[in-house]
Write a structure and sequence with these properties.
The chain has 73 residues and is mainly alpha-helical. It is elongated and about 50 Å long.
């Protein structure tokens, strides 16, 4: 992937990937706390069969510009 490709995806300044990962892990931990090993396996199988990945329970960031940013042509 070259530089021209990445110009299609400008950085999202307020997006913290590590924080999003931590929130997803915490949510999964809270949902599976107290489950037996079989229940945990069933939890992940059920989530795997759902339409969205386990971590995608938040609104994803957008690549739209804000009032303070300008799009390059």
């Amino acid at each position: 992937m070259n530089e021209a490709f990445w110009k299609n995806f400008p950085p999202i300044h307020d997006f913290d990937c590590v924080e999003m990962k931590r929130r997803a892990q915490l949510r999964i931990y809270e949902e599976t706390r107290g489950m037996s090993p079989k229940e945990i396996v069933n939890y992940f199988k059920t989530k795997e069969e759902s339409r969205a990945p386990i971590a995608v329970c938040e609104t994803p960031p957008t690549y739209e510009t804000t009032a303070n940013e300008t799009k390059e042509p």
